[in-house]
Design a protein that fits this description.
Elements lengths: L1 E8 L4 H17 L4 E8 L6 E9 L3 H9 L2 H4 L3 E9 L7
Antiparallel strand pairs: 1-3, 1-4, 2-3
Length: 94
Amino acid sequence: MHFVIYCLDKDGHADVRTENRPQHVEYLKASADKIVCAGPLLTDDGEGMIGSTLVMKFADRSEAEAWAANDPYAKAGLFESVDIRPWKKVFPAD
């Protein structure tokens, strides 16, 4: 099943994102087989990162929640909120 993981950073925590980015990227690489797409949310000018959105494949919600909780960004306290929702891919068709 696919899940969208939508995370918003706490205000003023750009340094936490920067400091933990290498570990976060390694965590993503280790989960590459589960990732449909992933990337940062940007400020309106496209210059700053303010969150993350991932679409990933997991067996169930509890696996998605565990994965999100173990993300180095989450462990570092970067996120103000994390929303996890089931998602159905329709287009483009596989």
